[in-house]
Amino acid sequence: MKKVSFLWKWAFLLLSGVILILVAIGLWTFYTLPESDREPVNFPVQEETINGQADLSTTSFNGLVEAAIGGNDVPYQVFIDDAVHLTGELTVLNRQVAYEMTADPQVDDDGNISLAVKDISLADLDLPIRSVLTAFQLTLPDDVPLDVYPKDQRLVIRLDQLSQTVGFTVMGGKVDLSSDEISMKLSLPVDLVIEQINQQRGGN
């Protein structure tokens, strides 16, 4: 529920921005036209979905990734600076060994986010990334939307799976941590938005 709540808060911030822009454009159009040409402004509130794009800071992206694949139910911690880092412990050669995985994120054609693993620090051991990822894969709970591809040395944050859980579509737009250019795309069913608004009203 924590993950769903975080994503809904983020989605509603974006949704509010889209609505404000539509209202501002409508009002500007209405009041700048000659009075004889004015017509009632009709906003597309009955559209099937509401689509938008949000530009994120690294801090907000960190929160989104943490909500998607982090939390108390996974055996690692996630933090993001100029790369994505996963830290935790693995059982390797019958030993519990601390590790730190460093990866570069990029958006796939399907809107999921790939993490190209460029380094894994594994205490005093020197093992191939492929071998460590194989061990890491065995530690993941089944319901975490994170796929592991040891041969390709990459992870994939499955935003498509996450979208099925939260009830609206979340896709990567652009992720370039080096230039701090991060954007995400959202598509929210209007019926679901109305349902959430009614729930919020009922809770107040």
Mean pLDDT: 80
Low-confidence stretches: 18-31, 41-46
So how many helices? 5
Q: What radius of gyration results from the CA coordinates?
A: 21 Å
Question: What's the SSE pattern?
Answer: HEHEEEEHEEHEEH
Number of strands: 9
Residue share in helix:
25-40%
* Order of the strands making up the biggest sheet: 2-3-4-5-7-6
The percent range for strand residues is 25-35%
- The coarse silhouette is elongated
Largest beta-sheet characterization: 6 strands, antiparallel
Number of domains: 2
SS-based class: alpha+beta
N-to-C span: 20 Å
Describe this structure in words.
By secondary structure, the chain is of the alpha+beta class. Helix content is 36%, strand content 34%. It has five helices and nine strands; from the N terminus they run αβαββββαββαββα. Strands 2-3-4-5-7-6 form a six-stranded antiparallel beta sheet. A hairpin with a 5-residue loop joins strand 4 (95-107) and strand 5. Helix 1 (2-32) packs across helix 2. The chain is elongated and about 55 Å long. The protein starts with a helix and ends with a helix. Mean pLDDT is 80; it is low at 18-31 and 41-46.
